[in-house]
């Protein structure tokens, strides 16, 4: 049984979506993002309030269609992402044991492509006693990108013992099994994730990737179509489905009947699922 390609691994792991800062850390109502960082530090010395401010600025940028990775790579007129990262790192220097500060730095570092720094913050979080499922999922994703599926499975299994009801740990575990070519094991843990309440469209997408890796074209297209029926704007599933129309089994499906080709063009979205 052949191992999946690197891009397939990314697309499967990508739909885990836990790395989104807006989901990893709850945001509260904070002051206007126009307040200067220096003024904000003086007025709000509490680290949680300052994290909220950074997250608000970051979320506003995401709503404008930008990701931190894009803002680091190009000149961005409305948000200096380097400035946000520096402020997050300053918070870490002041509050090195604050878990929200650590998670925020890990998320920002990951989004900017600085995997080594993200890994550093996540390893600190995971060294603490107790369950840290969000940190474990993101850390496992980095391990998969580095080709270390064994490490990903090891840390996920440890966290599953501490947080057995966390469905996204199981989805991340399925991604690791998928990378190893252990498709039956991946299906089993996806079933557990479903019983724990994971979104059906994500599970359908994962199952589609597994079937595609097994060259079961009709089953793969059926799963991708199922994902799109539940979440019509999910462009990764649409891209896979369009790509598989080179196979007769998928061309004969009725998903593309009476659909405008323009509407079928996958949007150029960022790496993190919306």
Blueprint (SSEs and pairs):
Blueprint: H1 6-14, H2 21-24, H3 37-43, H4 47-63, H5 68-73, H6 81-94, H7 99-111, H8 115-126, H9 133-145, H10 149-162, H11 167-180, H12 183-195, H13 200-213, H14 217-230, H15 235-243, H16 248-251, H17 261-264
Shape: globular
Counting DSSP E segments of at least 2 residues, the number of strands comes to 0
- Gyration radius over CA: 20 Å
| Strand/helix succession | HHHHHHHHHHHHHHHHH
Summarize the main sheet. none
Total count of helical runs of at least 4 residues: 17
Please bin the fraction of helical residues: 55-70%
What proportion strand?
A: under 5%
Q: Ends: how far apart?
A: 32 Å
Structure summarized in a few sentences:
The chain is mainly alpha-helical. The protein has 17 helices and no strands.
Question: What labels describe this entry?
Answer:
274 residues, mainly alpha, 17 helices, 66% helix
Describe the structure.
This protein has helices at residues 6-14, 21-24, 37-43, 47-63, 68-73, 81-94, 99-111, 115-126, 133-145, 149-162, 167-180, 183-195, 200-213, 217-230, 235-243, 248-251, 261-264. Helix 7 packs antiparallel against helix 8 (115-126), helix 10 (149-162) packs antiparallel against helix 11 (167-180) and helix 13 (200-213) packs antiparallel against helix 14. The protein is 66% helix and 0% strand. The model is unreliable at 13-35, 70-78 and 265-274 (pLDDT under 50). It has 274 residues and is an all-alpha fold.
């Amino acid at each position: 049984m052949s191992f999946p390609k690197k891009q397939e691994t990314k697309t499967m792991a990508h739909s885990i979506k836990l790395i989104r800062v807006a989901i990893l850390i709850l945001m509260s109502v904070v002051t206007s993002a126009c307040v200067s960082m220096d003024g904000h530090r003086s007025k709000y010395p509490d680290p949680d309030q300052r994290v909220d401010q950074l997250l608000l600025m970051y979320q506003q940028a995401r709503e404008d269609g930008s990701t931190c990775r894009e803002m680091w790579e190009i000149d961005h007129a409305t948000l200096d992402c380097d400035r946000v990262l520096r402020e997050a790192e300053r918070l870490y220097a002041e509050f090195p044991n604050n878990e929200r500060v650590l998670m925020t730095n890990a998320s920002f570092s990951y989004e900017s492509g600085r995997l080594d720094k993200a890994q550093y913050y996540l390893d600190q979080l995971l060294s603490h006693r107790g369950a840290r499922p969000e940190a474990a999922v993101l850390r496992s994703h980095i391990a998969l990108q580095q080709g270390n599926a064994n490490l990903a499975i090891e840390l996920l299994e440890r966290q599953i013992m501490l947080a057995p009801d966390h469905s996204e740990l199981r989805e991340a575990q399925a991604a690791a099994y998928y990378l190893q070519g252990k498709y039956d094991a991946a299906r089993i843990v996806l079933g557990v994730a479903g019983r724990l309440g994971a979104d059906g469209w994500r599970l359908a997408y994962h199952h589609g990737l597994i079937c595609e890796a097994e060259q079961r074209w009709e089953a793969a297209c059926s799963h991708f179509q199922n994902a799109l029926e539940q979440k019509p704007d999910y462009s990764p599933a649409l891209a896979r489905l369009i790509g598989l129309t080179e196979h007769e089994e998928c061309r004969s499906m009725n998903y593309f009947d009476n659909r405008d080709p323009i509407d079928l063009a996958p949007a150029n979205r960022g790496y993190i699922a919306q």
